[in-house]
Amino acid sequence: MSISFDKALGAHPAALNLRSERAKVLAENLANADTPHFKARDFDFQAAMQQATAGQKMAPLQTTNERHLQPANFSAGRAEMLYRVPYGPALDGNTVEMHAEQSKFAENSVHYQASLTFLGDRIQGLVGALRGE
């Protein structure tokens, strides 16, 4: 009898990858809080998770030249990046709001840790099953 690790681990590896990508995006937003005309970005985690678990890839962007590069989120089938609408935009055109970004980053960190815990528990369960415990 063969073991399918994809089925055994469930959606947790996909969630972990998406949480990691989201942490990078939110960290970029925080790092550019003082950059004029910087637009805060994020993605819809629920939609990205549904896409990742369904195994569907996003359609690539249309290009006018074969040397144009595809953004990483499109070529790898990841979430579509969206711009965050600020509560009160800054005079310099920057849409990063530190309190909102810090809140989103902390929330994402908690969910990332939870995904790690779930994944670790699944792996321990598989190891226990292989040992016959």
Describe this structure in words.
This protein has 133 residues and is mostly helical. The chain has one domain. Helices cover 55% and strands 3% of the residues. The chain has 5 helices and 2 strands; from the N terminus they run ααβααβα. The protein has helices at 5-9, 12-31, 45-54, 72-75, 98-131, and strands at 41-42, 82-83. A two-stranded antiparallel ribbon has the order 1-2. α2 runs antiparallel to α3 (45-54) and α2 packs antiparallel against α5 (98-131). The longest helix has 34 residues, at 98-131. It is flat and about 65 Å long. The two termini are 18 Å apart. Mean pLDDT is 83; it is low at 72-77. This is Flagellar basal body rod protein FlgB. Residues 15-39 form the Flagellar basal body rod protein N-terminal domain. Pfam families: Flg_bb_rod.
Brief summary of the model shown:
By secondary structure, the chain is mainly alpha-helical.
Topology:
Blueprint: H1 5-9, H2 12-31, E1 41-42, H3 45-54, H4 72-75, E2 82-83, H5 98-131
Antiparallel strand pairs: 1-2
Helix pairs in contact: 2-3, 2-5
**Model regions low in confidence, pLDDT < 50 over at least 5 residues:** 72-77
Secondary-structure element string: HHEHHEH
Strand content: under 5%
Calculate the terminal CA-CA distance, rounded to whole Å.
18 Å
Main beta-sheet strand count, sense and barrel state: 2 strands, antiparallel
Overall average residue pLDDT? 83
The figure for the number of domains is: 1
Question: Level of helix content?
Answer: 40-55%
